[in-house]
Amino acid sequence: MTEKIKMNIPLVEMDGDEMTRILWKMIKDHLLEPFIDLKVEYYDLGLEKRDETNDEITVQASNAIKKYGVGVKCATITPNADRVKEYNLKKMWKSPNGTIRAILDGTVFRTPIIVNNIKPFVSTWMKPITVARHAYGDVYRNVEFKVEGPGKAELVFTSAKGEVTRQTIHEFDGAGVIQGTHNIDNSIESFARSCFNYALDIKQDLWFATKDTISKIYDHRFKDIFNEMYEDEYKERFEKAGIYFLYTLIDDAVARVVRSEGGIVWACKNYDGDVMSDLVATAFGSLAMMTSVLVSPEGYYEYEAAHGTVQRHYYNHLKGQATSTNAMATLFAWTGALRKRGELDGIKELVDFADKLESSSIRTIEEGVMTKDLAPLCNTLNKKVVNTEEFLLEIKKRLEEVL
Ligand code: NAP
Ligand code: MG
After folding, report:
1. Same-domain check for residues 278 and 319
2. What is the pLDDT of residue 1?
3. Could you read off the pLDDT of 173-187 as tens digits, one per residue?
4. Is 75 in the pocket of ligand 1 (CB under 6 A)?
5. Which residue among 361, 376, 378, 394 is buried most deeply as judged by most CB within 10 Å?
6. Given the CA of residue 292, which atom of ligand 1 is nearest to it?
7. Structural domain that includes position 394
């Protein structure tokens, strides 16, 4: 065994809850610590610790990502009424991911992990499709009103100077509904910048779509911001990297994505991203194979799995039953973060290690060794279904062969 890989700058490590917290430790014990002198700043975002610190720990972790640039996060419970009872919480704390995103002002990119023995439902897809969802405004920050009878609905804006503009939305003859939505240039610009930077980072084409033919001011604003930023700041760099930016209409984009071979970053408005990320994830096969990275416009990165804490498996685990929970997405959160740390700090060994750990885990599945969730999706004949820990040890065996 050669010497362990050294790191200079710490990774911000954010521990989490339930089954993924168990996976987290197993991944570190079996696949990371034997090979790397892990340098981390540890934050426990497990629900108990968040409750104990009045959620200050989540804010501290987010600020640490701003300081060091790269974080890796385990899935965490977003409390609801049941969880408040289960954990005897002081309060129904906010979603940690929401808190982190608000502090970093980032965009979430979700990418499937592709293996050659699980075919996507769309037969032309050969390469991953990354969905980037704008996480501010539109219908998610709407104001709604139920119209009970005849009357006039108006759109009124009062400027800070007191000038008033007024437009009729509709003259109602009877009952109906109205809704007001907004977005802000700053947020759209941050989103656009994160998308351009990310596409350059992974050297894949960027697609963006809205419905600007119908929404000639609102959606058109998104189109203009993307196009202007591309022309002014990114065109040359895209051409140099051999990638392109495509703006089109949302219905055209959907048709093109289905006919494409993948290998694209698809930037979506908030609602489109909500819907399309579930569609793309399902069409690629499994939530357990979906990774996620939050990229801020300043270039801070936070890696995690797209799935939750796998609560059902955790309760089986607590009863002493071995679970067959898929560790791929959580493992790829670690490799993503380690690779980024290696790239930023110029540590080639760390980048190589991340590449080899990813290829060893893909090889494990491609050789027919997998967790229970993948078995029904996979077309290998002699499948070996293993439990959580056995799966990681199978990866380790293959990793040691290539190190
Ligand atoms: P979940 O943890 O994603 O799990 C839903 C189901 O999907 C599981 O019961 C399991 O199906 C399957 N699954 C997900 N990940 C898997 C994996 N790695 N390996 C095998 N199967 C996997 O969603 P949830 O149960 O709705 O949510 C549990 C908790 O997670 C909630 O408290 C929620 O707040 C939190 N959550 C956190 C995040 C985050 O931190 N990013 C995201 C989403 C949800 P089977 O039971 O059929 O095996
Ligand atoms: Mg959704």
Report:
1. no
2. 56
3. 999 999 999 999 999
4. yes
5. 361
6. 41
7. 1-110+292-403
